[in-house]
Amino acid sequence: MSASEPTDPALEALRKQIDAIDEQLVGLLNRRADVVVEVGKLKQKSGGPIYAPDREKLVLDKVRKLNHGPLPDRCLEAIYREVMSGSFALEKPLRIGYLGPAGTFSHAAAVRKFGSGVEYVPLSDIPSVFEEVVRGHCDYGMVPVENSLHGGVVDTLDAFLASSAKIYAEVKVTIHHNLLAASPWESIKTVLSKPEVFSQCRNWLASTARDRDVQPAASTSKAAEIAATTPGVAAIGSTLAGQLHGLRVLFENIEDDPDNQTRFFVLSREGARKTGDDKTAIMFTTAHKPGALAEVLDVFKERGINLTDIEKRPSKKVNWEYYFFIDAEGHADEPRMKQAIEESRQHCLQLTVLGSYPRATEVL
Ligand SMILES: O=C(O)C(=O)C[C@]1(C(=O)O)C=C[C@H](O)C=C1
C-alpha cells in the first residue's frame, strides 16, 4: 500500500485505540521509574544491592499470576526484564563481566538476563570474570557452569577453588547454533567454530556441509569475526555473534538437540536473599577414608533435602583427592539447610558454601 492510499477506517480506529493505550503505558512506566529512582536513593544510603534476584523473582512471579492473556507469559517476562534493566540504569549503571569476546553464549545469556540498560564487559577467560567481580571492577559476572549435553564446565568449577566470588543467581539458556556468513552458501568453502560446537551439530554437518572444510576456531565469536572478513568462510555461532559482525543467518537452529541448554551462574561479591524457592551450591573435600562422600550425601538425605547436581574435580594438590560440588534445594539461611551444612563439615576436610540463589524457573 502506498503512503497516499486511504487506510481502512476500521484499522485507523484500532490504531487510535493503540495510540491512546501507549500514551497511558508510557506514563505508567515512567511513574514506575520515578518510584525506582527513590528505591535507588534508599539503596545508595543503605548500601543494598542494586540487582536483587529475590525481588526480581517475586516481580516476575507476580506478573505471570496477573497475566490472563492474550499475551503469552514469555512475552510479558521479556518486557519486564527490560523494564527492570531500565531500573538498573536509573539506580546505578551496572557493569556485567562475561566470558568474551563479544557474541559468545555467555554474552547472549548476560544480555537476556540483564537487558539493554547495563554495560557489558568482555573478559578473556573464566578466572578473569571471577577476579573482576571480586575486585569490584564489575558488579556481577556471567559464567557457564553446565551444559545439558556436555556436563560441567571445568574452568568454572576450578575457579571457585581460588575465588571468594559468590553465586548470586542462575540463568538457563537454550543454545541455538546458526550458520552465519557474509556471502551465499554456494560460495562457502570453510565452516569455522569451536570444536564443542561441531560435536553439537553433527547431523547438520554430515547432511548439509558434507563437502565443506570444517576448521576449529578459539571461540564462536572469533569464528564470526573471521567469517565477516574472509570470503568463502562461514561460522557457526549465536544470532548475537551474527548481529555484532554484520553476518546473515544462512541456516537457523542447526544443533542436533533442539533442547540443548546451558546453565550459567551470576557471580557477585555478596549472597542472595531467600525467596522460598532457592538452591545452595556447596564445595567440599572429604577425609580420605571409605564412605566419607556417602556420609556427606546421607546428611542431606536424612533431612529430605534434594540434591540437583553433583560434580567432582581433582584438588590439584594431592593425587586422587577431589573437590565435590553439590547443588541442594533450599537456602543456606533455612534452619534445615544450616544444620545439614554444619553436620556435613564434620565429614569434610574443608567445606565452602558457594552461595544460595533463586531457582531459575524459565529458560531464556
Ligand atoms: O525492588 C528493587 O530492589 C528494585 O531495585 C526495583 C526492581 C524493579 O524494577 O522492580 C529493579 C531491579 C531488580 O533487581 C528488582 C526490582
Automatic annotation (TrEMBL):
EC number: 4.2.1.51, 5.4.99.5
GO CC terms, sorted: cytoplasm
Gene3D superfamilies named in the record: 3.30.70.260, Chorismate mutase, Periplasmic binding protein-like II
Domain annotation ACT: ranges: 281-358
Catalysed reactions, as listed in the record: prephenate + H(+) = 3-phenylpyruvate + CO2 + H2O; chorismate = prephenate
Keyword vocabulary terms for this entry: Amino-acid biosynthesis, Aromatic amino acid biosynthesis, Cytoplasm, Isomerase, Lyase, Multifunctional enzyme, Phenylalanine biosynthesis
Pfam (any one): ACT
Keyword check for Nucleotide-binding: no
InterPro entries in alphabetical order: ACT-like_dom_sf, ACT_dom, Chor_mutase/pphenate_deHydtase, Chorismate_II_sf, CM_dom_sf, CM_II_prokaryot, G/b/e-P-prot_chorismate_mutase, Preph_deHydtase
Molecular functions (GO terms): chorismate mutase activity; prephenate dehydratase activity
Family matches, as SUPFAM superfamilies: ACT-like, Chorismate mutase II, Periplasmic binding protein-like II
Compartments (UniProt record): Cytoplasm
Pathway in which this enzyme or protein is active: Metabolic intermediate biosynthesis; prephenate biosynthesis; prephenate from chorismate: step 1/1; Amino-acid biosynthesis; L-phenylalanine biosynthesis; phenylpyruvate from prephenate: step 1/1
Domain Prephenate dehydratase, chain residue ranges per copy: 95-269
GO aspect biological process, one term: L-phenylalanine biosynthetic process
Marked site (Essential for prephenate dehydratase activity) residue numbers: T262
Domain called Chorismate mutase: residue spans: 5-95
UniProt function note: Catalyzes the Claisen rearrangement of chorismate to prephenate and the decarboxylation/dehydration of prephenate to phenylpyruvate.
Protein name: Bifunctional chorismate mutase/prephenate dehydratase
Organism from which the protein derives: Humisphaera borealis
